[in-house]
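Q: Give me the 3D complex with zinc ion.
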Amino acid sequence: MNLETIIGLEIHIQSKTKSKMFCDCMNLSDNEEPNTHVCPVCLGHPGTLPVANKQAIYFGVMMALALDCKINKKSLWARKNYFYPDLAKGYQISQFEQPLSVDGHLTVTTSEGKERIGITRLHLEEDAAKNFHTKDKTLVDFNRGGAPLMEIVTEPDFRTPQQARAFLHELRLLARYLEVSDADMEKGHMRCDANISMRPVGDTKLYPKTEIKNLNSFRSVERALAYEVKRQTDLWEKETPVDYLSTRGWDEKELKTVEQRDKEESADYRYFSEPDLLPLILNEEEIKRIKAILPELPQEKVKRLKNEFGLKHHDAKLISEDKEVAKYFEEVMSETRSWLESLDDMDGSREEIWEKNKEKLVKLVFGWLTSEVFKHIKENNSNISEVKITPENFAEFITLIYTRKVNSSAAQILLKEMYETGGDPSNILDEKDLSQVGDTKKLNKVIEKIIKSNPNQVKEYKSGKEPLIKFFIGLAMKETKGKADPQILEELFKEKLTE
Ligand code: ZN
Ligand code: MN
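A: Here is the predicted complex, encoded as structure tokens.
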């Protein structure tokens, strides 16, 4: 049977504001003593009034603009009623009709290609508290109660679990670029429910969907959806497709979904407009101002890095995965360029000099940054902001390699020292005596000695066993403690051995 998979996502992102959505209690207080960041407003005491958090609204607008949504200049607050111990007021303040923004999109790329995912809406709301289930009772921590959330609902545009995962990855990157949230799924700052149904290819109607809950990593989203694709395909093939709305939880240990309580219809929430808050009005000026402070977004950055530095798509993406890494890379490139242009023995205009050397320099900077520096960062469980090597020093390090003052094994030692101490590469080079021996007089002495003490190998080489050159170079490298330039050695050996 030829089936098509239909997936839509609902994502909640906790905004990184100082205070909660409708009161001035501290936000992001998950690691604090339970129930210490609460007040009569977020505990739902009678007679208290909510006041909307301007920062949370602005963060929502930023995210909505980054998703190319249309911002509603007037949006409405609504009460979503349900009973649960984590909901102090018995309702959640959310937005229902006329949300903050609608009609956006985000393009995702997977190994199968590109897919444009429609964004139905992005609206603002407050979070519920957190329940803790112990053996015989349930405890509630209200620190999270009333935290600011943005809820993002997508169109049912995903066709594969991989696309859903790629979307979440891209969404997290956006939130981090905008600095509106860390959007860590593991920490619950980004939560995702996935809706999935299947239909025969060619059919245009949508069949009842299954909602999957309890997804707390990108991997579990992809796995749970893949599991459902298989389960629902089997049901279709048995001619008993899912014919009712259902909710299933993802069991991370068993790696399967398990049916939960029946899904509530939106009518069950008895939405009505929030009488304690005025409509949310945004004027053109405000929206323009927010638009103006948006940073360069990840997909734009990838495009620019490819154009400006000739990076491959994959490499530009790797650099852009962290805004700070991209910034560091560009600073190093700019320092490297200044150095290049300051050399007096160069012909041509600044632009020509740069164009002639750019490819090699970009390759060096990218290579040393993403292999060695990343390795040290990983080993130290650190991040780019904590790296002590300044872009100036990193650029200087690159020039030492470029001008062959150090060879690559000495460069590794040099970089490690720079990483640990933040020291200046030229100083370390002298202190540690790492400079490459390129002096042919010195090297020729070493070479003569090696030739003299290895007559058999010399004979074999001369009779045509050319790969032996590697053997000679190896001995010379040992003799110079790894500081010789292997390329020069090869030339000199070839010269001597053909004499
Ligand atoms: Zn409060
Ligand atoms: Mn919600």
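A quick observation: Residues 350-379 form the longest helix (30 residues).
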